[in-house]
Amino acid sequence: xxxxxxxxxxxxxxxxxxxxxxxxxxxxxxxxxxxxxxxxxxxxxxxxxxxxxxxxxxxxxxxxxxxxxxxxxxxxxxxxxxxxxxxxxxxxxxxxxxxxxxxxxxxxxxxxxxxxxxxxxxxxxxxxxxxxxxxxxxxxxxxxxxxxxxxxxxxxxxxxxxxxxxxxxxxxxxxxxxxxxxxxxxxxxxxxxxxxxxxxxxxxxxxxxxxxxxxxxxxxxxxxxxxxxxxxxxxxxxxxxxxxxxxxxxxxx
Length: 253
Ligand SMILES: C[S@@+](CC[C@H](N)C(=O)[O-])C[C@H]1O[C@@H](n2cnc3c(N)ncnc32)[C@H](O)[C@@H]1O
Known about the structure:
By secondary structure, the protein is α/β, with parallel strands linked by helices. It has helices at 20-33, 53-59, 72-83, 85-91, 124-137, 170-179, 214-236, 238-252; strands at residues 42-45, 65-68, 94-96, 110-115, 138-150, 167-168, 182-187, 196-202.
């Protein structure tokens, strides 16, 4: 049997190893879609083995990527197998191994925060601590993208659960966010393990979150196809054909 999620291997520990690349691309695509640019400062909460970090570190300017990960071995393995010391020297990422969601440890604010597959394992008091710290390091326009597993019940235990997941209702997540001065909007961004993406923003500075609904996009494509077919039919109509012919003749005169 191959590696299973949670096994002590840098690719398996953070999730299904066969989806390691896909889950990285999903995070990178989402943040760049939301507006992440190379000059922004990004905080990757629970950055694991730099699954997505390897793409962000490459993309961002030096000194812009910050990661928190209590399991130091994951970052070390990520650097050894995925990133390489040359890129670390060039891009100067900053890491902390704090395990109490002390996001203020870096003494700076961030344009983007990311917590992928963190609330899906966390107890409520850990989510509260993370939200409270996040609010302190968010600028008025910051975006905080996080996932959770949406369910009908709320996990009431006190411990981090791993590699299994815990569930919360969307309403509960939104209540927790509001209590910490944050708006919490679900976004329909695909996730291969059926987690739900949330975008958290400061309640005191409402601003629009870019939206992309795949269904809307497919509908636009369908409408465009219909318009093209309609146009082709018009062009082939005998009256229009005659009109076009007359116009060509008149132009020559
Ligand atoms: C499912 S993995 C996700 C890793 C990473 N976000 C990714 O997408 O590859 C969960 C991560 O949370 C880390 N973690 C565990 N306790 C944590 C804590 N108190 N604060 C931050 N991260 C924690 C684990 O070590 C693990 O790397």
